[in-house]
Design a protein that fits this description.
heterotetramer; A mainly alpha (313); B alpha/beta (268); C mainly alpha (299); D alpha/beta (440); C: 299 residues; mainly alpha; ABC transporter involved in vitamin B12 uptake, BtuC; D: alpha/beta; Rossmann fold; 5-stranded parallel β-sheet; 15 helices; 43% helix
Chain lengths: 313, 268, 299, 440
Amino acid sequence: MALQKSEIMLVVAAAVITLLSFAVPDWLAFTTTLAIASAMVVLGVVMLMRAGLVSFGQGLYYCIGGYAVGMGGRFLGITDALVLIGMGVAVTVALAMLLGLLLTRYREIFFAMLTLAFSMILYGILVKSQNLGSTDGFGVGNWTLLWFDPEGGKGSKTVLWLATAVGLAVALFLNRYFGSAIGLACEAIRENEVRVEYMGMSRRQILYINYVIAAAIGSIGGSLTSLAAGHVDPTMAYWTISGEFVFIALLGGTGHVAASFIAAMIFIMVRTYAVELFPNSWQLILGTVLLLIILFLPKGIWSLFTRKRRVAS
Amino acid sequence: MTEILKTEGLSRYFGAVVAAEDINVTITEGEIVGVIGSNGAGKTTFINMVTGYLPPSAGTIAFDGHPIKGLGPRKLMRKGLSRSFQIPQLFLELSVLDNLSMALSASEHRHLEMLRPVRTPERIAAADEILNQMGITQYRDEMVTAMPQGARKLLDIAIAMLANPRMLLLDEPTSGVSTDEKHALMDTVMEVVKRRGLTVLFVEHDMEIVRKYVTRVLAFASGVVIKDGPVEDVLADEQVQELVTGKRQQKPTEGKNDTQDETQKGGA
Amino acid sequence: MLTVWAILIDGLIYASWLFLVAAGLTVIYGVMRILNMAHGSLYALGAYAAASALGWYYNGVGDQLWIALAMIAACAVMIGALAGVIMERGVLRLMYGRDEVLMLIVTFAMLLILEDVMKLIWGTTPYFAYQPYAAMGRFNIGVLTVSGYQLMVVGVSVVVGLALWFWLERTKIGKILRSIIHDREVSEAMGVNVRRMFTITFMIGAALGAIAGGVTAPIISVVPGVGVEVIVVAFAVVVTGGLGSITGAAIGALIVGLARAVSIHTMPELELFIVYAVMASVLIFRPHGLFGQAVARKI
Amino acid sequence: MGHPLSRAGMRRTLLSTATSIALISAGVMGISQAAHAEDTFKVGLVTFLSGGASGPFGVPAAQAAETVIKAINAGELPAPYDSAGVNGLQLESVVIDEAGGPTKQVEEYRNLVQRQNVNAVIGYISSGDCLAVGPVAEEMQTFTIAFDCGTPRLFEDVSNPTYLFRTGLDAVADNVGAAHYLNDAKSDISRLAGIQQNYAWGQDSWQDFTLSMEQLMPDVEIVDNQTPQIFQGNYGTEISALQTRRPDIIHSSMWGGDMEAFVAQANVRGLLEQATAILTTGESGLHRFENQAPNGTILGGRGPFGGFMPENDLSEWFSKAYEAEHGTPPSYPASKMAQALLGLKYAADNSGAEGVPSSEQLAAALKGATFESVSGTVKMALAGGHQAMQPMLYGEYHYSADTGPELRNVRAYKGECVSPPDGQNALEWIKAGFPGADCD
């Protein structure tokens, strides 16, 4: 399979981030890492959105991914980042396979509310878990990457490289996925479920697979966040965090995988500067930006790129 | 000549309303059957029951000798029973090519593939072929929203055919199409049907078209099959005559009828 | 036995409050198909307005209970309706026809904006207008005491419920609204001014949210963020009951209220997720909530 | 002392919001021109400016910072802080909202240090934020003072700190102190209940408190503990549940608006006639409890802060200056912020540095130090010299029209009485019966 054009662009972008990581200040490396990590959760939200479903509970898997890293290090003594991420994915997939059985029956607001309910139930359980630090959460221990011990176990550069590599893999996969039969089938379900069944496809099967993959990717995002931030807490499962992911997904739009990464970076930067410049009214700014985007760019910022291309051609 | 579809005592009630009652129909492989009747006579209800969209209240359905009652649309498609819709059921925001590629991937049982692009060269070729046969090649890369109603009808039928069915049920293939285009459309469709050797059952209001294409007619009234037989016999029947002429008089109020009501939101 | 009585009384009191909060949400959804996340902010607006008015009144102007109660109602209705008009005319109107879920995000954005606007107006110091609550005293029911004010909230909730029922079932506007609920396109085709109806509905829904806040203001301390805490619970209630149904909101509120009271009296640890557990279990068996109706796709 | 809703109060709120915005924008403007100016010392202040913790804690702390920083720069503080600036440098501040959760705070912390180039960070009310930021402070080698958060796990997680300090007490001291106070002042109680916000602070507080009670008053029966959600506001059901259990003492670690709402509701419902409440953070409502809390309600202030401040030059100056600027006497979070800033000034003045002191110099100066503050003399005697050891005080709320709100029957417990000896796990120390505690 030859690389498509957008795949080459993704690889180039990843290479550029890796190269720039040697030049940029530490805070920017950290911010970029967080952006990549949340972009992955957002991609999960985007996957569901393409199928016409909005999840207000993707924080559930984000949180599981984060806690898997924290608990794997703390209670099982596992230090390898990839193994920790893998553990999170395993737990997530198991849970998503169970919840997916139920959730694929729901649409629209009911899907949104049920996903929200499940993530809030996890939140409640974690808040009640005093040995996991309750709402305070706990620190993530030092970790290693493939037997080598990056910068004394913390290193923000290493985690950026890791996030870039994992992010690239996920982006390449999803780029293919969105153009594949099942990726298109998801869009078809959003458009017309009756026809999907009358084509001989099972919408529940398609939605189920899509949901489980979206969950797994969300979990990876959570794992990377906790590796970078060095701390996990139940807020990760709180509904406002899930709302943030939906926010970013809308900001980017569902047009292209790259849109989620760009949108996550923009979101984090806008928030950072709004918090800094207007500490008393940053929510106002965020809300206004969101409204303007919905009003003028209903398909997200990615439509800026496609619009330009259309004009050019 | 083998029986392909057989219904016995097929009925459907919506509360106290009788939508279809005691329908006994046997269709043989290779037949082209027309279904006539005024709006609300139970034609669409019949098709919806046969293709698994509406569970029947009573009766049995057999396809190819096997009972199929209780199976959903998806399983029936897989068995070779396909249909089109009065209001085309299409993916409006996808391109025509994507609509067709999707249908092809499903008919190949490959709709769960994740890494291969859905538009393989083989599928593009197959899609081009059917577009060509249907005469709607010019819309290939457009979104469905850009197509006129007649072309959408053809695309809807094309998708139904891509499932490689043995039997095809067409629900009012010419409704919503201008009188001039009706014949051209049906010519195109029946050409493809013949080439593929399909058994066809179609609902039609235009008696000229019925006469032109079918060998046998089922006449519905008030949820019951009042006449079933060769086209000339049925159309000559007094009761049917009344129905046909009566229906002609009714035409201006068509939009308010309950069958219409039941179907008008399909494309939304 | 004492606990059972306490559970029933507490459950009823909490349910009335929940119904007050949820009623506006469900009215707006029923007519406009908008799940208004900013409903919590309207609640907070009502609470702030009532609290500042009461603060002004009790700070030397007077101390008549009935005037205070009238002020709560007036302030809440005014600020709610005003905010409702601004939100509907200023923002929502530009977005009609968009996806239901997108409208959810639009109202989420309004929530963010309103949170900060309220902070700029009222600051962050807690506002506390306990006087009416204190003035209405308490009743002893056996060993239990119930505050008079909370009994009044039960009454207000019943009155609001009946008024809504009357409005929707017995008035001309109500009939028009029901026709919109039934089929928007047909009503539009028949000459109903749907946009005007939307404005009216949103104003009333918003005023209901503000009334809930105003009535609650004397019980709680009004601080930034009160609205955000309320919204998810209100959502859970209306989804449990069936979106868009007033009866559903009432029954949903009762179920959630009682379930919560049972949990607090017997297993306080479960209180945090009891609401979600109730909602999830109802949805598992009734995918559209208790009084919600599935809309079958027509082909 | 008017009602907070009076028009003057409103104007003041608007005014202070405006000034803090002005202050902040001034700070921001400063970035470009003075990013590396050698005559300023830049401190990042992190405190809640939005959400439920902003009113009772975040904003009073930010206002206290405003007052104290102004005075430091003008050299208007009483001795020994009467020199202008810190180590002769003008103090410049960047204020950041603490809302948004630990991950975001880690991000903001990095931004402060690396992008804004602050020389030190003071902040953090939420324990979760402290726990997340603590290790990062060590990693980034930046002098950081946690001014309010109370988790005893802070210096367990950061077990060998160099740059991280806490100039207040942890929550263990609150609850050990509360148990001592009950033992001394309310020896006749027999039934104890609690109500805590449902999160780490509430859970830990209740655990520390009940364990201490088991040691000090083993005969008291624990009849109930309610755990309403944080910011719930309406506690009707919880109050009935408590009433049906008939306690005579109700312990609560609830804070801010939640605490005040609970007190007012419980008072109206008669619960506070039945039982006396002991509120570990009650001091923040001292000036707001009029007609809401019955006389005799026991309040704590998380140490010698707010209304528990001892009389000395610094506390007198601070109370006056704060009230003059912000219209109400300082509550404990304000005092704690003032104390953190004084700690910073002490460290800078004694760093022996030429120009801007480095984080290492500041840390070396503050480690194990003894400095004067609004709460009296602070000894950095815990966590290897990184955490303050201070006395814990409780007293009864009394209001009369003549005197206004005041604290009576105040009892102070020495730091050595309420905090475990350095290096010892708090829970084990309590369970073992407070070995080594000096409570005379």
